[in-house]
């Protein structure tokens, strides 16, 4: 089956936005010290409003079947709820957008094996070799930066929570993509996510003036996260996964650390040692190699 060119444009746009999201998140949660749950909740509310406007504009049907409610709840629990907790706290703890993106780039490997477990997809030996390659690369990257700090390793653990949550999201999403549009799925996803985050927002906002998030310099990265990374990127990912399957859609996650690293370097957030550069290259090579399935295994939808 010939793959739609639009699907590849959509997934490239999604991964580009997600690569930059680590920098925008670090600017808000790290540099400006916006409480994490305040940041996530406001992002979810803005994304919900954005998707609702898009839904009304295109006349999308938002009604969902009663039998699918449990899947929507589970989908939102995995992502954005657990995923954003792991990702945002992880980025703040490691203080490294590139390292965070590097760990997130391992998602395709975990997703592939989760797909093999739940949907009985066969994985060739070359893909398993790719998994093994990611280990030394990740070690080289991790030991180079603040590896003695306990908060740093806590950040690594939180980022791994994000990885596992993303796997659960993709596996659950497969049960919905054939029945609902990307707009319908993401409108409900962000609405339910907002409800999940509301108690944490109320418990942690304290004296923080939320209105400050809508002023410079916070407003620009906040809107980028809500509009580009949530509304735009999530919709593009759902569209791509529906048309090209989990494996081929996830391959592009290997580009996330490249986007983050290049952007971080040019805006002066990070510099890299030769070992770190080698680690990045090894992990990306391993992730890509892990996706080298045969043609008959490509279409998983």
Characterization of this structure:
This protein is mainly alpha-helical. The chain has one domain. 74% of the residues lie in helices and 0% in strands. The protein has helices at 5-31, 36-58, 69-94, 97-104, 107-119, 125-143, 150-173, 182-204, 219-251, 256-266, 274-290. Helix 1 packs across helix 3 (69-94) and helix 5 (107-119) packs across helix 7. The radius of gyration is 19 Å and the shape is globular. It starts with a helix and ends in an 11-residue tail after the last helix.
Question: Tags for this entry?
Answer:
0% strand; 11 helices; 301 residues; mainly alpha
Annotation field: number of helices? 11
Report low-confidence residues grouped into runs of 5 or more.
Answer: 294-301
Describe the main β-sheet briefly. Answer: none
Strand content: under 5%
Quick take:
With 301 residues, the chain is mainly α. 74% of the residues lie in helices and 0% in strands.
